[in-house]
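Thread: quick sanity check before group meeting

JM: Hey all, I'm pulling together slides for Thursday and realized we never actually wrote out the predicted structure for the chain we discussed last week. Dropping the sequence here so it's in one place. If anyone has concerns about the input, flag it before I start.
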Amino acid sequence: MPILSIRTGQLALIGRISLLFAVLAIAGLVGVLLLARPVDGDYVAMIQTLSASRAQLPGLMAVGGLLLVLGTALTTWLIALYSSFRVAGPLYRFCIDLEHGIREGQVPRIRVRASDAAQDDARYLEETVSGLYRHQDEIAGTAEEALRHLCDGSADAAAAAGQRLRRLTDACQL
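JM (edit): ok, ran it. Output follows.
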C-alpha cells in the first residue's frame, strides 16, 4: 500500500498546482469582466468604446496568451522537477550502492528512501546481483572440479564437468 500513498501524494501535488492556475484563470476572467462593464451613454459613446477596445484587443490577447504559456510552462517544469527527484534519487543510490558492492566483493544492500516508488526495483536488483554472485560461485566451483578431475586423470568426469561449465557460462551470456 505505500506505493498507492506515494502516487496519491503525487496526484495531490499536481491537483494543487492545477487548482492554483484555475483560480488564477478565474481571477483573470473576473478582472476582464469588471473592466469591460457596459458603457453609459449614447450610441456614439458606445462606438468609441468599442473602437478603443478593438484597438487594445491584440495586446490584451498577447498578454493573456503569454500568461497562459508561462503558467503551463511553470506547471510542467514543477511536475518534471518533482518527478525527476523521484527518479534520479533512487538511480543515484543504485549506482553508489552497486559501486560499493563491487569494491567490497559482496552483494550490496540497495538503500532507497521509504517514500521512493523504486522499492520493488531495489529488491529486484538485489536479487539479481545475489543470483549473479551465486552463479559466479557455481562456475568457479565447477571449474575447480574440472581441473581436479583433469589432474586425477579421470577424463570422463573432467568432460562432464567441462560440459557443465559450458552450460553455466552459456546461461550467463546476454
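AS: nice. The mean pLDDT is 78. The helical segments are 2-35, 43-104, 119-152, 155-171.
JM: adding both to the slides.
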